[in-house]
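--- STAGE predict ---
source: upstream dedup step, 1 unique chain passed
mode: sequence only
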Amino acid sequence: MALDLLVLVLFHLPCIADRASFASVCRHWRSAVAHLSSKEAPPAQIPWLVFPSPAIGSAVTTVFCLLSGATHRIRLPADLAGAHLCGSHPGGWLAAAAHVPGGGNSMAANLFSREKVPLPSEQQLSRPGSLCPPAIHLEGAMQMLCQMEEDVLIRAITFSAAPSAAGCVAAAITCGRRPGIASYCLEIDGHGTHRWTVPKSVVVYGIEDVVYFEGGVVPGFHFINNREDISVARTSNIRTLHWFWSKVQGEEDDVFSTLPDSVYISRYLVVSRGRLLMVRRYFTWSGSDVRQTLLFRVFECQIKLLHHHGFEIYSWVELEGLDGRALFLGRGCSRACELPQNNGIKEGSIYFIDDVGCNESLKMQDSSRFNCMDMGVYSMQEPESPSLTAATWRPDSCSSLFGAHEIVACIKHQGELEIKLFENLKELVAYVEDRTVEVEIKGTIQRFMSEPSSKGPPAIWFFH
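--- STAGE serialize ---
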């Protein structure tokens, strides 16, 4: 009887951290966890949101669990204290880059096994001209024919496999006066080059995200730029990346081409069900460096290989829904999760963090000047009509992490389109008044409450 009661309690603890704490209480509670694990599938692998350690030199930080709506305090490996978290990999891996004034070390670390794999610490970009620094070199050029151009900050890192796996390659998006890309072959035996490699003949501008994708005609790291072109770095030879460039062919976006100049677009790449997805994030950006996300749109990549010419043609096809999935967006660490029934995460949800800012040097050199406030969840599903008639729409299902819903509406008037947020349907009707307009409700958006928001580098999605 006691075991049945304990199992009943466990049913209300979907978070893996809560179940681990439950099991650590005593032998009887631990046996209840083992009994339940043998009877049911493990909880859905929904990622945690991990924030960098808030204090210089401190390894203690905060983790948010979306399944339970609870916060947890965890201790990062000491080498990550104060470091900028810039990537993750399934299985408990985090990637970090050292920076001033926070400190920390550049490495990939596993929070469960505590295994560590060093990454190059040098953060300077090499260009032809004089001597290359020891930690970064220009691919295909002699070391004496490089020059130091400027400091480089690592914006995002992604991996071709688990960082401890043989032959794993890391790809990074760098930022500075000339944002670019770099790669590094992880050698856990200590015999690697320990430096970032910058491709010699590749001209990259406006790179916004990177993901490792094996489903394309050319498996490898897929980069997307602000023109939505795809470039692929093949990793068949781990010492040298072979580059392939693809121009994306897509229909003209007539509807959204009339957005005002105050609305910006940022792009993410996500691998899901063997397909490559692109997510557009529409947001406003005020002069005070405050962002407000308005809308998300999801596209699936269609790939066609031209055999006679030897290159690929990419095209983007918009998806109306996510079909049992939720997306978690972050530079170099975006993931799509399949959702079992009754797991607390709504189908068609897109969780986002505040990582659209390009001025990474501002965040890293003076973290207190960067407000990490534009975080939350967007729902691609239209809200139910009865809920919209309420004066204030705050469903009972709202987690303590989230504020009230806002309705996302696209309003077209005299050929001009605007994206507006409304608290309820009455507010939308009052805004439209008696004008002749086209109105389409795209979904809803919720912000994280002020508690998880912070001043400092953005959080990262962590996949256990």
